[in-house]
Amino acid sequence: MLLKRYSAKPLESVIICFNFTAMKEQPVILFDGVCNFCNNAVKFVLRRDKKKLILFSPLQSESGQRLLQQYHLGDNDMQSFIFIENGKAYTRSTAALKVCRHLKYLWPLCYGFMIVPRFIRDGIYDWIAKNRYKWFGVRQECMIPTPEIRARFLN
């Protein structure tokens, strides 16, 4: 575990804890923290993650930014849903379908859509991503998670 102290303003400091061991062993979802659709998708995964292994981090957070840099993902990926598993980062439709394999009920069957060519899957993904703020809105406040749920977020 790595503890870092960052000064946000004079006389203010924040301690951020990065558990790199957990990130390598457990899959991580990076999501747009201000997007209602994305936040609802996180809640959806939280309820259906059968083994409670998936960790979460908003793209806008310190840990989200650090992971973007670590996996050489640029500003364009700030508009994407990112899933990190086994040391590899997946984006867009591939990320969403890979998450489905970790969910309970019939959701793992969605992974079968990987046979659809990526340009088609990502085209649909991009259309939804482009319209998500218009259709679902933007969050003005953060959810207050329970301690159990809070433990699944990187910061």
Could you write a compact summary of the structure shown?
By secondary structure, the protein is an alpha+beta fold. It is built from 6 helices and 6 strands; from the N terminus they run ββαβαβαββααα.
Please give a structural write-up.
The protein has helices at residues 20-25, 36-48, 62-70, 92-100, 118-136, 147-150, and strands at 2-9, 12-18, 28-31, 55-58, 82-85, 88-91. With 155 residues, it is an alpha+beta fold. The protein has one domain. The chain contains 6 helices and 6 strands; from the N terminus they run ββαβαβαββααα. A hairpin with a 2-residue loop joins strand 1 (2-9) and strand 2. Strands 4-3-5-6 form a 4-stranded mixed β-sheet. Strands 1-2 form a two-stranded antiparallel sheet.
